[in-house]
Design goal:
The chain is of the alpha/beta class. It is built from 9 helices and 6 strands; from the N terminus they run E-H-H-H-H-H-E-H-E-H-E-H-E-H-E.
Amino acid sequence: MPQLSEYEVYIFDCDGVVLDSNQLKIEAMENALAAHFSAQNLIAECVNYFRHNFGKSRFHHVAHFLNVILDIKEEQKDKLEQLILADFSKQCRTLYLSAELTPGFMAFLEQCKGKRYVASGSEQSELRDVFARRGLDIHFDGIFGSPTPKAELIKRILEQEQNTSAVMFGDAESDMLSAQHNHIDFVFYSPYSNVKEKMIEQCQLQQHLIINDFSTVRF
C-alpha cells in the first residue's frame, strides 16, 4: 500500500467517516419502523440487521425488512416501503444538519492533495443538499450516493478520473468489499464502526490500514 500522500483519488464514505451519524441513523430507522409496526421483537431484528449492514442503501434495507423479516403481504409492500423511506429521509435531513464532523477530519482532508469524493449508501440528492447547506460540498470534487450501489459509484469515479491510484476510507464491510471489487486500496476508520471487532480482524488479515484517529495521521 502506498503512502497516503501518494494517491491521486481519495474516496470517503459519509456515515461514521465524514460525519458522526451512525447512531443517529440507527435511531431514525427504529423510529421510522415504530411508526408503522408494533411488534418490538421484529423492529429490533430489523434494526439489528440495519446496524450490522451499514453502507448498504436504505432501499436495500427497507426491502429486506418487508420481504424477509416482517413478511408483509405483496399488496401492502409498495405503500409501506414509501412511508418508511419518507419517514427515514425526513429524519436524516434533520440529523445530518446537526451531526458532528468526525474529529480531525477536515484537517486530514486538507492533506489529501488529489481528487476527493464521497461515495455513500445515503440517498444522493439528500446527501448533496445537506453537504451544500453545511458548506461541505466545496471540499469535494463529487458527492455520490444511493440508490446506485457503492461498488458502482467507485467504478464511475475511477472511470471519470481515468485513474486507479485511489483509496477508499470506510467503516463498514460494504465499504471494504466495494473497494476490493474495484481493485483499489481500503482504509478502515474504526471509532464509529458498528462492526468494529469484525472489521479489525478482517483488515488485519488482509493488511488494510486501520485509522483510529484522523488527527494523528501524518502524511
